[in-house]
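Box 4.2: Ligand-aware structure prediction
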Amino acid sequence: MAEKDVLKIGMLGLGTVGSGVLQILTQNGEEIRQKLGTRLEVKRIAVRDTKKLRPVTVDPELLTDQADHVIDDPEIDIIVEVMGGVDGARAAITRALENGKYVVTANKDLMAQHGVELLAIAKNQGKNIYYEASVGGGIPLVRPLKQCLAANRILKLMGIINGTTNYILTQMSCAGKEFSEALAEAQAQGFAEADPSSDVEGRDASYKLAILASLAFSSKIEMSDIYVEGISDVKLRDIRYAQELGYAVKLLAVGEEGSDGLKLRVHPTLIPLKHPLASVANEFNAIFLEGDAVGEVMFFGRGAGSLPTGSAICADIIEAARSIKHQVENGIVEATFVTKRVVPFVNQSSRFYLRLKVKDEPGVFAKLATAFGDARVSLDMIIQKRSDAETAEIVLVTHGVGEGNFAVAIAALKEMDAVRSINSILRVIE
Ligand SMILES: NC(=O)c1ccc[n+]([C@@H]2O[C@H](COP(=O)([O-])OP(=O)(O)OC[C@H]3O[C@@H](n4cnc5c(N)ncnc54)[C@H](OP(=O)(O)O)[C@@H]3O)[C@@H](O)[C@H]2O)c1
């Protein structure tokens, strides 16, 4: 078959990410043509409203409000799905693959929940789906895991993979703002959506962890395999106390593979100030990986935004174009995903930070120590922070203990007459 000198792209969506893609393909079109030896041309773009004012220059003739006109166009080689949502995007990508097209997507919600199914359809069609932009925006992660680190057994991955929550936590720790004020600031700066729930409740990070963990551990991951806790209950006071103890508070996504199985979780975490992830500030993302051969590797950059995410999408378009040009079936063939055992969260262990209020009277420390001892929870430090006429505020940090044992200790504390309130529970990683 003669090599095409132009490959045609169809886009589904021209919002934040789609505009970045179009801008890069336009501005760097010649650079890309030189690298690829083929010109890339955007032939058609589906949007909801063709009359809407766009932040990027676009020929109105390219726009349609009928996604099918893009997906079913026989001249289009590569479909770029940047419209978001799950059901519509799943149907559109399935049909695009069945029409023999390569697909590029930034859709983490979709890939986390239906990635295995869509990759299987792609494989059956002799095509591929590329999804570098779905995790870490502009930071290369999917391809390094599939290619550069492929010879390693990945022991652990740990990352800040949600820029919104990292911006909020940075505002709290550096500017002394409470959560609601820091969230309002993030919304004003465009780092948080009007409905921030997916970000602040940790769901966005859990989708990204599912994608990363499936690649790192070559396993199918169900969303129910991941323990998820967001940052909306993190208080400025805990961030201050954590700093005094030598820790930063970050929303971490953690995946580990041990002899007992996979452990997957997203939660606010106290991490030592000297750890490289502790200094990752504002909207930036960073992912720390440990491979048995390579050792520790860290990736850092912008995890979202029009041009950073567009950069990852355009790299995927170029990869798809190379596969088409060189007639490589499936492009780089996907890893085979088995289903590995997942350790239930209650059987995992952690260190804990706990802040509580107790009656300010003699013997309370001893009662607390007994309740923890009975639940086989051993304490590393216990500090009295403040007190008024009647109550004392206590901060304590445990050694590594089982989640189940810690829950038993908390249940016992709640029954104690001397315990006024349990104000905060956070996990600690060394
Ligand atoms: N924003 C980021 O920084 C970022 C980073 C990484 C990944 N992502 C992912 O990238 C995807 C797109 O995000 P975004 O922020 O660019 O979203 P967005 O700004 O809301 O843009 C969505 C675009 O899709 C179009 N659209 C929506 N439903 C459609 C439909 N049924 N048919 C045709 N067009 C439709 C919209 O048309 P109108 O413009 O006419 O409304 C809009 O152009 C999502 O999956 C998101 O999770 C985003």
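In the box above, the bound molecule is NAP. The first strand starts at residue 6 and ends at 12.
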